[in-house]
Amino acid sequence: MAVASRSALLSALHEVIDASRTDGGRVVLLVGEAGIGKTTLLGGLLAEREERVLRGTCEPLATARPLLPLHDWSRHLDVSPAWTDDARRHEFFEAWLDVVTAEPTVAVVDDLQWADDATADLLTFLARRLADSPTTLVLAGRRPSGRIGEVVAHLGRMPITTSYDVPPLAIEEIAPLTAGTDYSPSDVLALTGGNAFYATELLRSGTGATVSSSLSSVVLERLHLMTDAAVAVVEMVSVVPGRTELSLLLAHHDAAAVDAAVASDFLQVSDETVAFGHELARGAVADTLGPGRARALHRQVLAALVAQPTQDTAAIAFHADAAGDHDRAVTFGVRAAAAATRAGAHGDAASQLERVLTHRRHVPPARSAETLIQGADALARVGRGEDALALQIEAVDLLTDLGNHDLLAETLANQHRSLLTAARHEEAEAVLVQAERTASRAPGGMGELHAKVRRAYLEMLSGHDAAARERGREAIAAADRLDCPELGAVAHNVVGSSSWTSDPAEAERLLRAGLQLAMSIGDDTHAATIMVNLGSGAASIRSHSLARHWLERCLRWCEERDIPSTDHYAMAWLARVDLQAGDWRSATTRAQRCRDSSFAAASAVAGGVLATLAVRRGDADAGALVTDSWSRAVLTGQLQHTWPAMATWLEHAHATGAAVPEEAVAVFAEAVACDQPWAAGELAWRLRRAGALSPEDSRLVAIDVAGPWAAMLAGDWSSAGRQWNQIGCPLEAALARAASEDLDAVRAAVSSLDDLGAAPEAEAAAEKFVRLGGRGLARVTTSPLAALTAREHETLDLLRGGRSNRQIARALGISEKTASVHVSNVIRKLGVSSRTEAALLVDGGDRG
Length: 848
What we know:
With 848 residues, the protein is mainly α.
């Protein structure tokens, strides 16, 4: 939001904060270029507020310290939650939420562009939960990019968020600053463009600067006016991003020099620390340093930091790197990365380790290999699989030369995971075989455990459930013996997920045990994965109540902890449950939310649901959606996704009279070979229905299929219908009744199919009813609301509330132009002439 002046912006900010006390919490995004005056503006705003103020800032370290603003916030509090190595991140965030919302508060984070991943996650967590509090969260900084840029974009779409661009100084605001100088307001405005920092530095420089002067030249002119001793103090502070301890300066410089440096107005003192008034000034001074002088200063700061009783590992790693101290750069860089990982700042951990790896040629090979492995793990966590793979390959070479078979096997197993993620399946298999062979030379170690887990996991993904269970149980025993709960949780997940079709009760028991292990070590992401596997496994055997329980619990878990990819997968599987249970509107809404997920499995499930719905409704774009669904499924390389996509393709072929796809029989054969009774049953029935298999086909002899499908294949329509009804699958129950020769059953099938909106099947069943001599078939006319998409239903609900296009756009997080298109589509599909008529149609009781 643009404002005309600083005074207008201050008034607007005061109004937002006032509103948060009476109408619920607010988020303010304050954006402006470097030096525009955001920090000064905030200082003036906060000085006039009576609420409690928590003010924190981020620092421009090469790799940020996790949760740094909380250290600043803590200074304003008598008691505050402390982050420890064994802290649970979600509980820590909850504790800070309680603190921030306990009373009317203005919580500020400045220099947001330098925020670490953990701070970004915390701010998202807080912002989503402020609505019922008297707190305003103010986030100020330059326009950010990367992870924090994504967070700011997300927050900007929230209804409680207001964004402001900080305007440059107007000429009337510059005029008082030029009083007593040789500059005119217009000259200052022409030189600085209204940038507050540039204007201040220009006026401090005296008459020597001209309108062509750069910031660097202005800074150099000011340095030349200072004593050498004071300049040395300023130079030392310039190599420390953020704040420098006053005690550190006094250890290397006399008090008079420190006082002179502060008096120069370059530096500011606060809470026994010293810092530049602006980061631009610090950078300008640092740029004047030669490489030798800069390295010497970093060494002085490094020595002081290492000697402190409480060591800041991120700061030590930063200065060790700049000082060329290879040993400390590696030691403290690894520690800082571990701290970042524990805080959930995985991107910062990866950056920290990448910097550490620049020193690997200067440390012993064994230590270099360990650092390569840690770096690869960190890069894999942030989705940089190819970079992780390159480090793993280098580590494998080193470990091979060192003869460390146990660690080599572990690294090869992790390399297998990277190759599998990159869909390089043949290479992945070769590497896993190498890992298994290497592990055999160091039996009973962690390398062998990693290889067992990877093999079991691969068997599970391939649908080879019996083999997955066998390997997985071996891994469970090994993980118990080696006291490795992390891999124990993975092994329980594999065995449990592979047991749904053979022993559902055992599947749930094992997955619950794995969940407890993941929770015991604070692995929230893997806990979410196990929850979604509990839900998806239950859904795959049509146990809908159990599936909903775990999928909804997973969604709550992911929302509380901001775990997006698993969140999408759980939502996609809930859409599948809705589809199977006959709630097609909910299935559509949920599937549309996650169809474009970057997580391939979630995208495949959601795309499959939407394609199936389109086929069953007889939509014009069903063919395109079926093709898209198959492509998404193939991309995963997993039978659990390819067989449902093929079932939908066969359903579409039957509805349109198209040829059976060539891949169908191969997918069916794979389902049979992998002993997947639900997959084999549905594919067999749909192949039979499409004419690709005859009842006497040898491929249907002695195959294991799920009960309802067995009844369908046997032509026992009454039994099939009862079984489908018992497990809550109305479409399949209707298809079973429609296949019978009983008029009452076919009549009931037509009614059920009409209720679902399955137009093609309903029409076919109605025609059969007539062919059998039936009369008096009453058909339900489909509501015009059934033609609306999920987004159009949301638009209609907002129209009913009297919302304008702009308000609809804000509520749905879309552009006003897109909102206008949705409104037009709603009006056209409902056959009305205005938005008012559309709302009245709904109010008249036709809710679809």
